[in-house]
Design a protein that fits this description.
This protein is mostly helical. It has one domain. The protein has 8 helices and no strands.
């Protein structure tokens, strides 16, 4: 009997929760979330996430500016992250091998531990980027706005401020909206 009252209380509470309201359709939220979650493909294939984000951006840019924005910012984030980590790890390893070769192996005493440390640092950065992208996927799937630090604003400026396309209010940030309103009023 007590179990039935607990179930009834749960049902009553769940019926009191307001319905989720988002300006974006379920399909838009799914495509935007998949663009961010495509970073999971990088863990399995190395570069599959870049291809996934690019495909979503290219196929959805005519259908939804919001999805296109998330696809493009995910693509740029993944490319920047891969490039920076590859360059840093690659340069340290090349310098480490050169130092070891020039010093006839004595440099390896210092170089090898540093090379290994930098490799693990690169793996940690890639893992952090994966977590950050999955957080972005969760946010957009819930219908919330999400922008990668530095990259989101940069992509927005390159995508909408230089084109004739007027982005939907959901893509435009509050700062951009104020600037646009000021521009329209002639101030």
């Amino acid at each position: 009997m007590k179990e039935n009252s607990v179930t009834a209380d749960r049902e009553k509470k769940s019926s009191q929760v307001p319905a989720f309201d988002s300006p974006h359709s379920s399909d838009e939220r799914t495509w935007a979330a998949l663009a961010h979650a495509s970073t999971l493909l990088n863990a399995a294939t190395g570069m599959g996430g870049l291809i996934g984000a690019a495909v979503i951006w290219l196929t959805q840019k005519e259908k939804s500016a919001w999805v296109a924005f998330h696809g493009l910012q995910s693509l740029v984030f993944q490319a920047a992250q891969s490039l920076i980590v590859s360059l840093v790890v690659g340069v340290v390893w090349v310098v480490g091998f050169a130092l070891s070769f020039i010093t006839l192996g004595l440099g390896a005493i210092v170089a090898v531990p540093v090379m290994i440390m930098v490799m693990f640092l690169g793996l940690a950065l890639m893992t952090g980027g994966l977590v950050y992208s999955l957080y972005g996927a969760y946010q957009v799937y819930e219908g919330r706005e999400f922008r990668y630090i530095w990259i989101g604003d940069w992509v927005y400026q390159r995508s909408f401020e230089t084109s004739e396309t007027e982005p939907p209010d959901q893509v435009r940030g509050s700062k951009d909206k104020r600037q646009s309103d000021r521009h329209r009023s002639g101030k």
